[in-house]
């Protein structure tokens, strides 16, 4: 479950974090990249700001992707110790995903292809990617990124960022580090000859796990209960999707 993930979802401290980022981190961390990407990014829509758009544009570019992705997956302690190098990008990406996700008001079926071989004995196990994870609405696009281990994903926390991406043709859905999944199926090409990948893992969203939620502030009790209610809603909607709260 990616135990070292920087998985802050800012439940209960969004305004505090926004103020902290703007006053302390934004100017230094976005620096040259922000100037360059503000020139090319799509004008703000969907209740997003220019900072949200810069974050998406920076993330979907080629300059910081690998370094940032690895940092989010592994630097949990640095985040708490205030030595993390990516507070602004992490916050504005997370906030953008949450704003777009709220507008979507629905889970999304998406695909991810990799050239990495993963463990096969994982059926019914709970997992999370533990970093911002790119996927595509188009299976053919996902396949272009790898054919060894692939994922068919039902994400309920991710958001379609196609309109604001460096590469809109990739039809990207961005999944946040804190989203959790259950592996409901694992299929191999040895079992199904025309499978689109060597191994396909089917993941279904089960909620969120945010160990570092509001880690730079005192954790609010309200956020704790809100998180638990959110997880309960995901569980109920998997069993009874017709209920009013699931629409």
UniProtKB/TrEMBL annotation:
Keywords: Disulfide bond, Glycosyltransferase, NAD, NADP, Nucleotidyltransferase, Signal, Transferase. Its EC number is 2.4.2.31. It catalyses: L-arginyl-[protein] + NAD(+) = N(omega)-(ADP-D-ribosyl)-L-arginyl-[protein] + nicotinamide + H(+). It is an enzyme of class 2 (transferase). Pfam families: ART. PROSITE patterns: TR_MART. GO terms for molecular function: NAD+ poly-ADP-ribosyltransferase activity; NAD+-protein-arginine ADP-ribosyltransferase activity; nucleotidyltransferase activity. The keyword NAD applies. The keyword Plastid does not apply. Belongs to the Arg-specific ADP-ribosyltransferase family. This is NAD(P)(+)--arginine ADP-ribosyltransferase. The lineage of its organism: Eukaryota, Metazoa, Chordata, Craniata, Vertebrata.
């Amino acid at each position: 479950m990616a135990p070292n993930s920087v998985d802050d979802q800012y439940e209960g401290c969004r305004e505090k974090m926004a103020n902290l980022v703007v006053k302390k981190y934004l100017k230094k961390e976005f620096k040259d990249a922000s100037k360059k990407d503000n020139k090319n990014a799509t004008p703000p829509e969907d209740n997003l700001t220019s900072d949200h758009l810069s974050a998406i544009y920076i993330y979907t570019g080629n300059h910081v992707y690998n370094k940032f992705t690895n940092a989010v997956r592994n630097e949990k302690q640095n985040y708490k110790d205030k030595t993390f190098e990516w507070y602004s990008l992490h916050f504005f990406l997370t906030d953008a995903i949450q704003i777009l996700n709220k507008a979507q008001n629905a889970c999304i079926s998406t695909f991810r292809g990799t050239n990495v071989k993963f463990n096969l004995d994982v059926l019914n196990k709970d997992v999370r990617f533990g970093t911002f994870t790119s996927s595509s609405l188009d299976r053919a696009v996902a396949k272009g990124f790898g054919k060894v281990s692939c994922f068919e994903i039902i994400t309920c926390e991710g958001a379609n960022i196609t309109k604001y991406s460096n590469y809109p043709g990739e039809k990207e859905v961005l999944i946040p580090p804190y989203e959790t999944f259950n592996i409901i199926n694992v299929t191999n090409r040895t079992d199904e000859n025309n499978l689109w990948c060597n191994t396909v893992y089917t993941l279904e969203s089960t909620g969120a796990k945010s160990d570092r939620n509001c880690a730079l502030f005192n954790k609010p009790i309200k956020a704790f209960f809100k998180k638990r209610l959110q997880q309960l809603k995901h569980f109920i909607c998997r069993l009874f999707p017709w209920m009013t709260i699931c629409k």
